[in-house]
Amino acid sequence: xAMHFNLLRCFLLILFALNYTNLVGTSSAEVQVFSDTxxxxxxxxxxxxxxxxxxxxxxxxxxxxxxxxxxxxxxxPLSYLEEALAEGIxxxxxxxxxxxxxxxxxxxxxxxxxxxxxxxxPR
Length: 123
What we know:
Oligomer: single chain
Radius of gyration: 15 Å
Shape: globular
Number of helices: 5
Low-confidence stretches: 3-8, 10-22, 26-32
Number of strands: 0
């Protein structure tokens, strides 16, 4: 039973890695150290933010007024977003819905955004 569980867990990790690689537009060789917290942030970004914001390095935001997560992570200190995400972010593009995240979700999302900024290719 334990061996079956370990095989399943390995399969899920491989599946997640392949999915994540497609999400950010990088090859598996380019994927650097990625914490569990940042992984959780990826899922939050995909679920709540990706309809408007580019959440990968080589993506363009689907909503023309929504900045990409790479831009957010490299142009401003991410700590500026921490309070806004906790209290209900109401800035951004005019039709942006209001989101309120838990402290754990905020930590995960900001960790993912920081990781994205660290991966940004020099221009």
